[in-house]
From TrEMBL:
GO MF assignments: transmembrane transporter activity
Annotated organism of origin: Streptomyces malaysiensis
GO cellular component terms given for this protein: plasma membrane
Chain ranges passing through the membrane: 20-42, 54-73, 88-113, 170-192, 218-242, 254-273, 285-303, 309-328, 380-399
Protein name, as recorded: MFS transporter
């Protein structure tokens, strides 16, 4: 076996390796939960589809409002400490969720859970930066993302025999199992040795830190990154609906696209991270992301005018291009969001940056369904042009007009 190939999937430092294992435990629980959540909501809590949608939408809004304040809390009291507390809070919320009854209790628990869920990714990025050296930061984040994809799959597979029993207590056990993984993750996070520590230089309140954010260039970059993050909705909503409603490809092509995306993400995320080890490479990654996502849209448009076999091939090609765009967007945004964030406000800045993808999750499904798909092949063509231009503009906005924040510090 080629040991060099294997080593690129292992973080260089013990703290990074521990964090990657923590991410695996966390994601196994999340995959277990996601596989059975829809059935749990309906058969155990007794919700209608509309009530589930309302609850999740309200939770998403709560997360959007809480992300930046919780990032500021991370700056004030330490990103790792805040992340540990959020993991424990998620465990408490999921334990409560296992026993709620009716839509009101569901919405209440979902709001508390949504506030914590949205703040976890930026604080995770901040903690990873504290456990790695600068040259290993993006690669470690890529390893964590790869591990999480593997964990989601393992968790989903674990749910299959449990779901087959079709029991209320089995569904509750799935939710409680997710809660247990958060407790385990919190315990491992608390023991991680940080390579670097940053003490807050500004003894200001959390509220004042949030209200005082005035870095408009960083906000523009965050917004453009949110547009590039549309790949998430294209995969989960756009490709399935377009395949079924507007192409002659068989419905069986839909799960194949998901498998192709997951497999490519696991295999290629770490190798792709090498491009973003420099500032110029990160900007190039965003340009490539825009081009790949634009190509994906062109292929989807063509699939709407092709026969069954050609349409299927075009859908698979579109999935490959979408995945490449996803990988380039991820590594480029990781490095740029970190480079331009001041050391003592890194949690706040990274949380602000995460608002772009969060807004995409709220607005993206409506844009894709009511806009792009409804307009047909021309809609995909317009979206492709927008994504290409967004990648180019993102690279330009992130150009070093001013010297980027030094990377000698941590979160």
């Amino acid at each position: 076996m080629n040991t060099t190939w294997v080593k690129q999937y292992v973080p260089a430092h013990a703290a990074g390796r521990t964090f990657a294992f923590t991410a695996l435990v966390d994601s196994v629980g999340t995959g277990l939960y996601l596989a059975g959540s829809a059935i749990f909501f309906v058969r155990t809590i007794g919700l209608t589809s509309a009530q589930v949608g309302v609850g999740l939408a309200v939770a998403g809004c709560a997360g959007l409002l809480a992300t930046v304040p919780l990032g500021a809390v991370g700056d004030r009291y330490g990103a790792r400490r805040t992340l540990v507390l959020l993991q424990l809070w998620r465990a408490v919320c999921f334990t409560a969720l296992a026993f709620v009854n009716g839509p009101v209790a569901f919405v209440a628990v979902s709001v508390m859970l949504g506030a914590a869920e949205a703040a976890v990714p930026p604080l995770t990025q901040a903690v990873v930066a504290s456990t790695t050296q600068d040259g290993d930061r993006v690669r470690t984040l890529a390893i964590v993302r790869t591990v999480r994809n593997v964990g989601f799959s393992l968790g989903a597979l674990s749910a299959v025999p449990l779901l087959a029993t079709d029991s209320v207590w089995t569904y509750r056990a799935i939710v409680l199992g997710d809660a247990v993984t958060f407790v385990l993750a919190a315990g491992m996070l608390a023991r991680i040795r940080l390579i670097r520590r940053i003490e807050p230089e500004r003894a200001t309140s959390v509220l004042r830190t949030v209200r005082g954010f005035r870095d408009w260039r960083y906000l523009r970059l965050a917004g453009l990154n949110g547009v590039l993050s549309l790949h998430m909705t294209i995969l989960s909503v756009g490709i399935p609906l377009w395949t079924i409603q507007s192409t002659e490809a068989p419905a069986g092509a839909v799960p194949v696209t998901v498998i192709v995306n997951t497999a490519l993400a696991v295999v290629l995320q770490v190798p792709f991270s090498r491009l973003a080890e420099t500032l110029d490479g990160s900007r190039r990654a965003l340009r490539l992301a825009g081009l790949a996502l634009g190509g994906c849209c062109v292929a989807l448009a063509a699939a709407g005018r092709a026969g069954p076999w050609t349409a299927t091939a075009l859908l698979l090609g579109a999935t490959v291009l979408m995945t490449l765009g996803e990988l380039w967007q991820a590594v480029g945004s990781w490095e740029l969001s970190y480079r331009y964030a001041p050391e003592d406000l890194r949690g706040t800045y990274l949380s602000v940056f995460s608002l772009g993808p969060a807004l995409q999750e709220i607005c993206g499904p409506l844009l894709i369904t009511a806009g792009t798909i409804k307009a047909g092949p021309y809609g995909w063509g317009v979206l492709g042009v927008v994504l290409c231009l967004t990648g180019a503009v993102s690279a330009r906005v992130s150009a070093p007009k001013a010297r980027p924040v030094p990377t000698s510090g941590g979160a």
